[in-house]
Model the fold of this input.
Amino acid sequence: MRSKLHLLIVICFSLLVVGCSSGKKQPVNEEMEDFVEGLLAQMTLEEKIGQMTLFAGDMDQTGQLKRKDIEEDIKLGRVGAIFNNYGAINTRRLQEFAIKNTRLRIPLLFGLDVIHGFKTIFPVPLAEAASWDLQAIEKSARIAAIEASAVGLNWTFAPVCDISRDPRWGRIVEGAGEDPYLASLIARARVRGFQGENLKANNTLAACVKHFAAYGAVQAGREYNSVDMSERMLREVYLPPYQAAVDEGALTLMTAFNDLNGVPASASKFLLTDILRNEWNFDGFVVTDYTSIMELIQHGVATDEAQASEISLKAGVDMDMQSGFFQKELAKLVEQNIIEEEQINTAVRRILKVKYQLGLFEDPFRYCSDEREQNEIMAPEFLEAARDIARKSIVLLKNKNNLLPLSKELKTIAVIGPLADAKIEMNGSWAAAGDRSKSVTLLEGLRAKLPEMNLIFAKGCEIDGTVTDGFAEAIAAAMQSEVVILAIGEAASMSGEAASRSDIGLPGVQQELVEALHKTGKPIVVVLINGRPLTINWIDEKIPAIIEAWFPGTQGGHAISDVLFGDYNPSGKLPVTFPKNVGQIPIYYSSKNTGRPFDPKNKYTSHYLDVSNDPLYVFGYGLNYTTFEYGEIMLDKNSMTDYETLEVSVEVTNTGKIAGEEVVQLYIQDAVASLTRPVRELKGFKKIMIEPGQSVTATFTIKPSDLAFYDQDMHFTAEKGEFRIYIGGNSRDTKSAVFELK
Ligand code: NOJ
Done:
């Protein structure tokens, strides 16, 4: 039965779930309004359009088109923001051009993709999501902001809020995985970390929520491809993390490259105005992704530069990244009365307000400090934090007969594999100014931990390619050792932008290397270093111990060694499902039941002939060196109304011999609804440390908004009836209970 609760739910949704939709928004700042209006009143049309233009500098190339004349543009006030240029001296020099040469002395913004660290590189975002540790994630973003702001930057193109359920897509590495609930909390943590508590402090960065919207759903996982999905799927699964970041107060937002249901994101009034401005009240500015306005011509929705500029401005874009189309076309469009100057004023106001909030008008050079650049980069406590979150991100996938942790008393260990000593791969993609030569490899981490141990290193093979010449040496190393630590996976360049793969197995001859080593009969620990779920069925079947270390960043080798030798008890849980093969994609835990759920006794049920429906590893999965037992779920009542909450608790006992952290996960299913609903959806989690033999009660509060979905009329509604609760240490192995919404 359908209730008429949607209005109430909308209110509750704002207040309870998303944590109030105008979360960190400041009350109207009259001083800022007056300042911006005063400035705007003095600006010529040319100067306004300059503020709406962003060009790349030459310290990095992150897209297809480069410009050479930015210094000239800055001096002429034809550009208001620069990216891919950093360094205190460098940014000071450019800022001086803007301040000394232009009439109104409007400071520049300096942006960069500071995605998972600036110099101290943290694990890739997908890895950090595996920590399920919001404080650690916030800290990682905070440190990234401290370092980046010390070299003149004041704007980061992060957090990436793209949900992805397709591991072929290389950029799955940049987001928080497949689940909107987890990803939303992480998006908020990152915004808090980047923007800090006081935007005017000299160590904060303006965050940029990206890529709006649904970029992670590109068809067939092929980069820059189209996205076609129902509005319900969009709103329930893909939009929540962007909205969460907006609600947390992110100052800027970037459009996506893809078209969504036929409309390129940079031309989408539906996304940029109806949803972003009118529904979410976003008051920051919108920048396009790299040359996205130019790409409207390739998309086939604009015939020329003028039309592309018109469409995107009217849709709600405020700043043009790198096309140069706004710079070239907007004034003419105003003269021709195709666009109104007031539309330009609106965009410029938003941009100036961000500059104001960062304190740039008070001191345009507040971010360009030589001294900070010398003293605040790769500080020991930053490296320690990087090691800590890298350990927290590691997921123990298999540990047969407790092969791990390894004993420090072992005499000889073979350290094998193309990723065992690969400095240049540890940081993964989008590693900003991370100095790869400073990243600690697994071999270096092991040597540091175990100076007395005889570690025999053999590369075995390259990450990619067909050469097997190194196998003999690797086998010989294994034969002389008590245990093999085998580091395999992907190159950093195999994930990130423009890095889609149609086969997500191990590249090159790595699989053959594993098989050859397996034949030696030596116990093997596989360490995966990679940026996406991999199809490693054979390894899962035959190799006794597997850890997923992802691209772990600057301190990766130390972090992995800590886990391998039990100095850290792994607690990471997968933020994304690992498929058995590519044919299962998209595969995610919150699927629908279908009208014919699989029944092995009935041919005419939903299944494949050649692979089971089950993934290799489910969402939320991850082992620990200790074991946990879950008690029965307890409810404070058997039913709730739409104006109440319900308390759910479960006792979790550490049944092993050492202390360990468990991520207790709460899932909910709407048993019968007016629309088909997922078999379960994550609605809460708690990460708790439990001493051996100890029991801890995890308590969750269920709110009406946790039960709501978009009904047939697209109202966000909770329908009365039965709900099922599942609680456990992953999305599959759970205890259950039921209650009713009355
Ligand atoms: C293109 C990428 O899609 C985007 O994420 C990035 O921020 C820009 N290039 C700038 O580097």
Residues 62-63, 113, 157, 210, 289-290, 497 surround 1-deoxynojirimycin (CB under 6 Å). The chain is about 30% helix and 15% strand. The CA atoms of residues 199 and 357 lie 6 Å apart. The first strand starts at residue 53 and ends at 56.
